[in-house]
From TrEMBL:
It catalyses: GTP + 4 H2O = 2,5-diamino-6-hydroxy-4-(5-phosphoribosylamino)-pyrimidine + formate + 2 phosphate + 3 H(+). Its EC number is 3.5.4.25. Belongs to the GTP cyclohydrolase II family. It is an enzyme of class 3 (hydrolase). The lineage of its organism: Bacteria, Bacillati, Actinomycetota, Actinomycetes, Kitasatosporales. This is GTP cyclohydrolase-2. The gene is ribA.
Amino acid sequence: MTEKVGVLGKKSPQHTGAERVVNAPLPTVYGKFQAVGYLDHDRGDEQVALVYGEIGTDDVLVRLHSECLTGDAFGSQHCECGDQLDSALRAVVAEGAGVVVYLRGHEGRGIGLLAKLRAMALQAEGLDTVEANLALGLPVDARDYGVAAEILHDLGVRSVRLMSNNPRKREALLEHGIKVAEQVPLLIEPCESNITYLRTKRERLDHNLPHLDAVAHWS
């Protein structure tokens, strides 16, 4: 991978979209990745793709992971995000090659950290995740996956095996010229704290979560 020179945190009038800024080795508890850093000149976000092995161009195992501080860093059981990130990183290592694109600016399905916490407070009072966003006057899902497609294009990826339960991610990649050869389920065993959230994602956001049918308890 060829490193491009750029200045993090500053927009350049010469650039639009995602610019590759740096490529650095990143040893992790899962294995040794290459962390490829990008600057999204349109939104000002700093993005990173974790690349494992020789990924090639076709049918690459890929996860588009939306930033979730509470789940990814704090181990929140309100959602399944942290477990999904862990599973995705393990999966690409087991595969021998793959990419996890970590999408910053996607906190709370794009509404931001503080708004997400406000929505979580409303959910504690009985609203579901969709109702909570709407009660705050916010979109149910404000995420955009254009930058993810740009990153994959830059990495030379033409088609993916997408680790996701969300049909919107597949549709977004197709719209941006990335073929989806397969959608690979990323199913996490639910717990009492997130079962309502997961059921809402299935029933109101069309996520493919068939494993919830086996959960008979936890009303």
